[in-house]
Amino acid sequence: MKVLKFGGTSVGSVQSILTLVDILKKESANAEPPVVVLSAMSGVTNLLLDMAERASRGDGFNEQLKELEERHFATVKSLLDVQRQNPVFTKLKLFFNELEDLLQGVYSLRELTLQTKDLILSFGERCSTFMISKVAEQRLGATIFLDASEVIKTDSSFGNARVLTEETELLIRNFYRENPGKLIFVTGFIASNHAGRITTLGRGGSDYTAAIFGSALNSREIQIWTDVNGMMTADPRLVKKAFPLEELSYTEAMELSFFGAKVIYPPTMIPAFLKKIPIVIKNTFQPDFPGTVIRHDCHSSHLPIKGISSINQISIINVQGSGMVGKSGFSGRLFSLLAREQINVVLITQSSSEHSITFAVHPAEAVKAQKMIEAEFELELEARKIDRPQIEEGLSVLAIVGENMKQTPGISGKLFHALGRNGINVRAIAQGSSEYNISVIISTVDMAKALNAVHDAFFTELKKTLNVFCLGTGNIGSTLFRQLSEHSEFLKQNNGILVKIAGISNTRKMVFDENGLSTENWRAALEGSEHTADLAGFIARIKAMNLPNCVFVDNTASPKPIDFYEELFRSSISVVTCNKIGNSGTYEQYKRFKDTAHSHGADFFYETNVGAGLPIVRTLKDLMVSGDRIVRIEAILSGTISFIFNNFNGDASFYDVVKLAQEKGYTEPDPRDDLRGTDFMRKMLILARDAGHVIEPADISIGAILPQSCIDANTVDDFYGELKKAGEYFNNLKKEAARSGKVLRYIGKLEDGRVATTLQMVDENHPFYMLSGSDNIISFTTDRYKERPMVVKGPGAGAEVTAAGVFADIINVGAQ
Ligand SMILES: NC(=O)c1ccc[n+]([C@@H]2O[C@H](COP(=O)([O-])OP(=O)(O)OC[C@H]3O[C@@H](n4cnc5c(N)ncnc54)[C@H](O)[C@@H]3O)[C@@H](O)[C@H]2O)c1
Ligand SMILES: N[C@@H](CCO)C(=O)O
Ligand code: NA
């Protein structure tokens, strides 16, 4: 036999009642009929309470009473055949008359006792259960209506009565025995005391009724039918990726019960827990969904944690002082005091230095607790053995829960890594030695971010979401969006990371969407946005959105975003940049970026600063961290100049080849940066710094490629004009090289901390002789790669390879 309980929404409408009857039909088809426990129709308990309070204030309540009657009558009319309606109307009318008399009494006396309130509230369950038992009867055959006050006996604590278990169980068993094979409908929530007065069972009361019946009748299972698909991994209002759990242990269900949207109130399940009866949470509105099973032995899940619980508003009180150290009885006094005053303590921490005890309470009780402590420890305070207790507000508790975390190392590491990476400060920590709950106290404003980051960290079969903000929609920026869109399917299948574009800005407009902008139609969204571009505003909005796992991507060639890198790092937001200006400013700035990123748990990835997508920055880093020492770096790192020298042959003029390099997207937005050697200088500077040298831009000697007239050109147009005029100069260079069987190469070198770039003519024996297209080449001579250097070679400029490098850096942030 099973006990099925249906909550307020499941009995709240004609449609849901029909579904309920269908569920019962299936349940009764080839088994013993279940015992059905029902709540009041959704909203009815509140309406009854409202009427009672109005009456006690001397306000009218007839409108509400009428609403209540009409709702039930309309339901009867929709669900019952005409000839069956009358007896039901009569019984309901009797209920409503009695209720009216009661409310009238409250109105006359202007007094609402807890006892009367319980009686008034009982009409919700009585009306709904009677009515639905009759609806079921019409479709399924004879049913029995049981007012639970006849069998559940309690003490006289009205409002939250204590059940007299033995007596109750006996009465339930007798009743069941006297009605064999019948479909029994029981009112949830209500009971009675020995004098026969109606009492109620407090919070989660109907669940409790179900558990009491389940336990008394040794039922096979208790089903709790509600309006969600089960217990979720986290509060679904804050975590979009939260999903219903298949299976939980009782302990886990208890620990997870702190969600805002409560599915069940686990303390009510204790009778079932003691008898090891499985509890199944089911959705009336999706009856075929399996729901969540809460059971004693739960083996199927391998997940180390089952869910993340959250309590949204708490205050902490810190009691500290040297007088507490090594003193037994102090915490005993403190917590006895709180217990005496009925102040519920949510969480306690004390470090082994015993210098302070921190505990969390509901904000409404914080001041009272503080005052009580001050009074209790007056002498210690006066003697300065302890300090005045301090209250801190605006805090919340986040807890990861799961029995499998027991004896599993790395769980707390993962939790704190996720919090730390997102810049979330942990105010206090608690973990019991039973190891099925680790609780942290954090600032309430960080709750959504923390929940999502921690959810991503533990439920890895779902994708980790990176929230990406892109600045610059030119050559590289737009190519990146295209690549993201082309590879989204691949990423979905093969990578644990979901890249969500949460914001985009160019120099005209900016647009935000925390649900993610389309990588295909981003341009329309940006153009259509109401926000005019404003870099400081863009950064402020990124911070205010406070999303987890954020990455800022700088795809500009502008010095402006550089000013915001540190601010981003300080908010634990990682930066991926192909913009070289940041790393090639002062050494002090370069160092500060690294340090700030590091100390705030953020990443700073700039692989494309050198050799576009080629693995150069990463390779150098690997050499350095593994203890190698750079002896020499020789490199061709300008894709543009490489392309020019590789294509400056035949009839094409130097001018034409430069134009072609720009068209192909190899040059900087301003091609003078390439041809004056600035871009190459920046790359050598960044490599030298990454190789451990404290070096400034002015320390680098830049060899000229251009005649002075071109170097001096003030605008890009002037520059091209001068370049055209200087055709003869470049032709002569080319001829001179050809005469001696050589080619032109612009080569950078780092040795002994000195960096220079020079234009050279090299013969076929030189390792840099054979290059084509926009190839870069870099050779690292190190202590370990001494005889034969390590060489990286390949296309080192162009939108495709650069955007791909930026893409890889973004994914790398997600992998950390
Ligand atoms: N082209 C390559 O092969 C290559 C290789 C490696 C690195 N890079 C680097 O990539 C960066 C971008 O190059 P690109 O070819 O895409 O240049 P681009 O000129 O096509 O695009 C840059 C975009 O940034 C925008 N921008 C500038 N300042 C801005 C601001 N303050 N706010 C918002 N947007 C702003 C510009 O309007 C422009 O649309 C450069 O720093 C370049 O050095 C390029
Ligand atoms: N303009 C750069 C792009 C790659 O950083 C080059 O030509 O090498
Ligand atoms: Na690179």
Structural commentary:
By secondary structure, the protein is α/β, with parallel strands linked by helices. It has four domains: 7-220, 3-Layer(aba) Sandwich (Carbamate kinase); 307-458, VC0802-like, CATH 3.30.2130.10; 464-612, NAD(P)-binding Rossmann-like Domain (Rossmann fold, 3-Layer(aba) Sandwich); 617-796, Dihydrodipicolinate Reductase, domain 2, CATH 3.30.360. The protein is 42% helix and 21% strand. An eight-stranded mixed beta sheet has the order 3-4-2-1-7-9-10-8, with helices on both faces. A seven-stranded mixed beta sheet has the order 20-19-18-17-21-22-23, sandwiched between helices. It has a six-stranded antiparallel beta sheet with strand order 12-13-11-14-16-15, covered by helices on one side. Strand 17, helix 15 and strand 18 form a beta-alpha-beta unit. Helix 10 (330-340) crosses helix 11 (363-376). The radius of gyration is 37 Å and the shape is elongated. The two termini are 51 Å apart. The structure holds nicotinamide-adenine-dinucleotide, L-homoserine and sodium ion. L-homoserine binds at residues 612, 638-640, 666-668, 674, 679, 796-797.
